[in-house]
């Protein structure tokens, strides 16, 4: 029967073709087509064929249905064995001889090459819908399947964007190897394991899957035929590879056509790609078309299974897109040119207008079932878009899109209204007390309890409470405020071990609240849950509601016994040294200025009008005495006369005024507060002294703080982590409260988050925060990855931050409730600190400035005096200056003879005294000013 049919087919085809060709010159080609509208045109002109070698009958139905709908009145489908090129050659030859304007298919490589060469020789369009990594160079072949190397690049981009360190690639055959080739080529630091899906002929992949399970692999790329994919995923679930720890990227573009229901709730992260939007009306129309076609062969439509839009595979949709492309290509040809006649196979003659039709197709573009259909000059599909899908409880959800121009673009999820949604919120609590009496008892042993104050607590109440009213705290209030904004409901669930969640680095599994979210035991987690990059990989967070950093909680320093030399404490050592320096310099300046200033040379006998010598009060001893006298606020009888010395004295008094008042004020502070012994000021000084001082330090076990030190590249922080691990039993605690207790009772520095420290130091007055924060981070509300309501929840947090509600809640739970504010007075008390140069440097500079100004005055005064003397002696200015300087710079004695003008007589005192010869007189003269200093030895009145 089969043989007879096989022999009859060409004949039938020939007869059919003849009848069609007969119509070729008469019918008009004037249809428009839209799959939505099904506007049928009239066409008896063209015949086209599908050479079919696959196992998916929907392709045939889609071809037939769409060809009819598009007005291709004459079309036929023939089948050929896959990889049977001789048959393919024969059948394609028959087709072109029968006047087909295009051949669709076949799929297998060997058959496709044969049809390609027949079409190439006859200039007949050959339309392909298959993956081809090494696309044909034939000018007649047009492939509407995405260009192979470009699609491979898209897969590599998507895997790269997932940021997987190591992963396993499952492939099926050579064709699938070419699809993943780009992924393997990308440079990366970590290794990729490659495994072939070899089912040993019985589709049993379990041994292979168990092997990867044992090896601890948890990220997979799967590339295989869609039929095999179902089995692989089923068996992965059976061996335990479908839990929250496992991530899959599936390259098959038909992922959406398989049943993913069993994996929706598995927690595993399954990502895939597609080109057909099952929600588009055009896809629905095609599904109906195919459903209708199924009944046609027997005219029976009773037992047919209707095709849903999500059942349509890519190649089926591409056949329809290919038909539409052909229709657009032919539309451009004049009616007469649309007939293919006298083409023989073998033979030289081809379709004269074939290349025009092919070029038209390459130049056109349109929105088809698979997005934009556009070919390049070589007939390869370009500018296509892939939808990136993620499997969640609602099924496959589009999360991003990839295209050749922009690469990956994340798609904002359509957010549902949260009204009437109920979330399970996991948190941790303190104090299991329903009745006040029990609470009091519990308060007595609270030090031994693990607590999560102030985030979640049991409500203190004498009556039995139910529902959410059983709990109170900052986190409870925050969720309540958010629910008021977004109108959602919530039920609290309690994490008994109070573990926030950490990742087991060997198994990659999460415990604590993060684990609960991943395993779908809760929708949201709220407590002092720090947002870390490691957690962000596993779950999503809202915008942070509190900002913090790691700091140290330690005992307030003990007061030290008063120091024997505590009188020196008001000034730092440097200030004392500068003070000594200033005293020395000002004293010397006064001495020098005193000598240089003419006004400082005074007449020792005020009754004698014209003294023969002058005296100066600023001896070196007097200068030092004068400055110390003013520094000690005692004064001396020395009174500066010259402008310069008065200026210097004034500045010095100002200096002493400031210094003495500062000293007095600070001394009072020092005497009032006993200074505390500070063991360390920050983490670095702690590292220097902890051994010597016997201080231990630690953090909360498995918490974000411990992980901060674990992951840090800073050598000091690494040292801290190593110390904590080596002394784990002695220094690591299970809760913040255990750490606080330890810090109170022992010499123990507890690394804790600053917001929690703020809470504790309001209630534990013997503790304080030491040093700055080591990092900056925040607490957020966690939820499963790709949680659809994340944006709405984040917006609610932002609104509460902006309207000050969160600050208000913080004030309430930190400072007002549950013993808050106890230590406020103590927190504010300040220690007295020695004044440093920073505090009193200004007054030193004023003194320096004043002294410099005084020196300038000295010279001015001296110059004026010399001018006056030069006039009096009728001598030149320079000669007078020389004389004066000669005296001053000898620094000998404080008696300065007055030089007489020529013709002036000596004073009476001098004339009485001097009855010596002029020669003797000259010899006894100390210098050119020439008078005896002995006059000073006796008071003048004697
Ligand atoms: N907030 C931390 C966490 O989320 C716990 C406390 C800590 O590590 O200091 O893990």
Bound molecules: glutamic acid
Could you estimate the helical fraction of the residues in percent?
40-55%
Secondary-structure class? alpha/beta
CATH superfamily membership of the largest domain, which one? Response regulator
Which residues form runs of ≥5 with pLDDT under 50?
Answer: 1-44, 431-451, 905-942
Can you tell me the overall shape?
elongated
Question: Kindly state the mean pLDDT as a whole number?
Answer: 81
Give the CATH level 1 class of the largest domain.
Alpha Beta
Question: Which topology of the largest domain does CATH recognise?
Answer: Rossmann fold
State the separation between the terminal residues, measured CA to CA.
Answer: 166 Å
Rg calculated over all Cα atoms: 50 Å
- Order of strands in the sheet with the most strands? 7-6-8-9-10-14-15-16
Question: How many helices does DSSP assign?
Answer: 32
**Number of beta-strand segments:** 32
Q: How many discrete structural domains?
A: 5
- Any guess at the CATH architecture of the largest domain? 3-Layer(aba) Sandwich
């Amino acid at each position: 029967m089969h043989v007879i049919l096989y022999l009859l087919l060409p004949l039938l085809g020939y007869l059919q073709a003849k009848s069609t060709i007969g119509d070729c010159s008469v019918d008009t080609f004037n249809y428009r087509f839209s799959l939505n509208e099904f506007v049928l045109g009239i066409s008896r002109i063209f015949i086209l064929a599908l050479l079919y070698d696959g196992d998916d009958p929907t392709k045939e139905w889609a071809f037939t249905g769409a060809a009819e709908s598009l007005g291709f009145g004459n079309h036929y489908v023939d089948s050929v064995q896959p990889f049977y090129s001789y048959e393919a050659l024969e059948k394609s030859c028959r087709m072109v001889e029968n006047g087909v304007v295009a051949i669709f298919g076949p799929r297998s490589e060997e058959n496709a090459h044969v049809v390609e060469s027949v079409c190439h020789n006859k200039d007949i369009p050959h339309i392909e819908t298959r993956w081809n990594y090494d696309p044909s160079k034939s000018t007649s072949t047009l492939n509407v399947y995405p260009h192979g190397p470009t699609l491979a690049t898209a897969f590599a981009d998507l895997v790269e964007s997932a940021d997987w360190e190591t992963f396993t690639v499952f492939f099926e055959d050579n064709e699938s190897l070419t699809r993943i080739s780009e992924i393997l080529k990308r440079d990366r630091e970590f290794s990729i394991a490659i495994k072939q899906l070899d089912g040993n002929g019985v589709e049993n992949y379990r041994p292979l899957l168990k092997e990867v399970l044992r090896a601890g692999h948890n990220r997979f790329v799967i590339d295989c035929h869609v039929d095999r994919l179902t089995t692989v995923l089923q068996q992965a679930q059976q061996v335990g590879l479908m839990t929250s720890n496992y991530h899959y990227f599936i390259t098959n573009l038909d992922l959406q056509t398989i049943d993913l229901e069993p994996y929706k709730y598995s927690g595993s992260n399954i990502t895939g790609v597609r080109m057909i939007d099952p929600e588009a009306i055009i896809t629905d129309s095609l599904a109906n078309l195919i459903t209708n076609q199924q009944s046609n062969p027997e005219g029976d439509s009773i037992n047919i299974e209707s095709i849903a839009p999500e059942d349509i595979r890519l190649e089926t949709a591409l056949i329809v897109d290919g038909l539409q492309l052909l229709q657009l290509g032919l539309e451009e040809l004049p009616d007469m040119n649309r007939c293919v006649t006298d083409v023989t196979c073998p033979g030289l003659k081809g379709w004269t207008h074939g290349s025009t039709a092919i070029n038209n197709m390459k130049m056109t573009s349109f929105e088809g079932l698979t997005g934009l259909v556009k070919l390049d000059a070589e007939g390869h599909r370009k500018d296509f878009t892939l939808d990136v899908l993620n499997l969640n409880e609602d099924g496959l959800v589009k999360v991003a899109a990839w295209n050749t121009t922009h690469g990956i673009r994340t798609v904002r999820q359509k957010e549902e209204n949260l009204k009437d949604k109920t979330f399970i919120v996991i948190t941790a609590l303190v104090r299991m007390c329903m009745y006040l009496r029990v609470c009091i008892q519990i308060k007595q042993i609270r030090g031994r309890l693990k607590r999560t104050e102030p985030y979640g607590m049991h409500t203190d109440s004498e009556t039995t409470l139910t529902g959410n009213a059983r709990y109170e705290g900052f986190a409870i209030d925050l969720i309540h405020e958010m629910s008021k904004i977004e109108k959602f409901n919530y039920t609290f669930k309690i994490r008994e071990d109070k573990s926030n969640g950490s990742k087991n680095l060997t198994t990659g599994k999460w415990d604590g609240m993060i684990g609960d979210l991943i395993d779908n035991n809760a929708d949201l987690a709220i407590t002092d849950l720090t947002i870390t990059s490691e957690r962000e990989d596993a779950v999503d967070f809202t915008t942070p509601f509190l900002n913090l950093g790691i700091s140290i909680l330690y005992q307030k320093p003990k007061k030290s016994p008063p120091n024997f030399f505590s009188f020196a404490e008001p000034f730092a050592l440097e200030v004392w040294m500068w003070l000594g320096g200033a005293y020395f310099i000002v004293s010397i300046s006064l001495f020098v200025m005193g000598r240089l200033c003419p006004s400082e040379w005074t007449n020792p006998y005020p009754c004698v009008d014209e003294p023969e010598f002058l005296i100066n009060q600023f001896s070196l001893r007097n200068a030092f005495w004068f400055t110390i006298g003013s520094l000690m606020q005692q004064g001396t009888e020395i009174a500066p006369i010259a402008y310069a010395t008065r200026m210097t004295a004034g500045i010095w008094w100002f200096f002493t005024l400031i210094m003495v008042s500062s000293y007095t004020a600070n001394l009072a502070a020092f005497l009032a507060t006993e200074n505390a012994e500070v063991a360390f000021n920050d983490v670095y000084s702690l590292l220097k002294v902890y051994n010597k001082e016997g201080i231990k330090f630690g953090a909360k076990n498995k918490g974000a703080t411990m992980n901060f030190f674990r992951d840090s590249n800073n050598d000091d922080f690494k040292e801290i982590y190593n110390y904590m691990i080596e002394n784990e039993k002695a220094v690591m605690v299970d809760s913040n409260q255990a750490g606080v207790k330890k810090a109170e009772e022992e010499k123990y520095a507890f690394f804790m988050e600053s917001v929690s420290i703020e809470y504790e130091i309001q209630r534990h007055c013997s503790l304080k925060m030491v040093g700055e924060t080591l990092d900056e981070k925040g607490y957020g509300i966690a939820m499963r990855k790709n949680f659809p309501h994340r944006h709405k929840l984040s917006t609610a947090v932002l609104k509460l931050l902006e309207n000050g509600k969160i600050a208000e809640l913080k004030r309430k739970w930190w400072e007002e409730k549950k013993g808050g504010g106890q230590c406020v007075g103590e927190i504010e008390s300040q220690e007295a600190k020695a004044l440093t140069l920073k505090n009193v440097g200004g007054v030193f500079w004023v003194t320096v400035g004043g002294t410099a100004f005084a020196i300038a005055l000295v010279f001015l005064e001296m110059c004026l005096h010399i001018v006056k003397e030069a006039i009096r002696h009728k001598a030149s200015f320079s000669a007078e200056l020389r004389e004066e300087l000669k005296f001053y710079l000898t620094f000998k004695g404080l008696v300065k003879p007055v030089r007489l003008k020529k013709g002036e007589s000596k004073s009476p005192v001098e004339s009485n005294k001097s009855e010596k010869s002029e020669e003797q007189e000259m010899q006894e003269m100390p210098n050119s000013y020439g008078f005896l200093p002995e006059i000073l030895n006796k008071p003048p009145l004697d």
